[in-house]
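To close the section, here is one more complete example, presented without commentary so you can practise reading it yourself. The ligand is iron/sulfur cluster.
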Amino acid sequence: MIISIASGKGGTGKTLVATSLALSLKERDSVQLLDCDVEEPDAHVLLKPTITHTEAVSIPVPKVDEDKCTYCGKCAEVCAYNAMAVMKQKVLVFAELCHGCGACSYLCPEKAISEEAKEIGVVESGYAGGVGFVQGRLAIGEAMAPPIIRQVKEHASHEGTVIIDVSPGTSCPVVESVKDSDFCLLVTEPTPFGLNDLALAVDMVNELEVPCGVVINRDGAGDSKVEEYCLGQGIPILLRIPLDVEIARLYSQGITLLEGMPQWRETFVRLYSDIEQRVSIGMKTGDK
Ligand code: SF4
Ligand code: SF4
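Output:
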């Protein structure tokens, strides 16, 4: 089963939930944590994994043979990302904008475009205690997160449980991370900002047809608008984590919740069972 852990905004406790859920399952199941927050992966700070394998991630970017080029402008025309510009006697390629889609080389009438690999980041894999660990890292100055996320997800095991730590927001990297999940946990906080971003995240998972549930972090700190919203939308609140100085202290010191407060293990095991049940009911009714 693949469970993605997302949140409409950063700093809501998404990684706290992802690492706690992964660690709570390691004794009963084979479990992997995939950190797909490739711009700022931070699960490793808590899990302190041993990395055993590193692989580069590249995308194909165009290389123009100006001896063949007639400066017709077709490549710049077809590029949806403005990654090419054709001047009178020069073709410019803005590699940092290129998505590696191949349209320009495919459609160049003179076959003047070849492709060369451009490294945009790495995928690192290993283990942390009994948890399989994979994370992507986007190289500094690069903007193309989805190819790295896809490569991280290729490491997902087909057995056991896969927990995906998703980047905050609702943009392309989030969609790439959440799609194909069996369930998405949306972590929020009970504030007007939390509600606003939660609503956007709910729209996204609904669009992807991924069932979801909510975790309210720092429960007790704000108002009841998130609860009212969830009730109105029929979205289950599966866990509440109270506003607690000790939880914040552990997190700031890079100590996992289950290590610092092992009494939380059972709560996360129950959370998993709840999700498992919801997914299996959804599969039976075809309501995914
Ligand atoms: S499409 Fe091909 S021939 Fe036309 S400007 Fe681009 S590289 Fe040159
Ligand atoms: S590969 Fe795609 S994104 Fe990159 S320059 Fe060509 S058309 Fe644009």
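Once you have examined the tokens, check your reading against these statements. The CA atoms of residues 86 and 284 lie 55 Å apart. The pocket of iron/sulfur cluster (ligand 1) is lined by residues 64, 69-75, 86, 91, 108, 110, 112-113 (CB under 6 Å).
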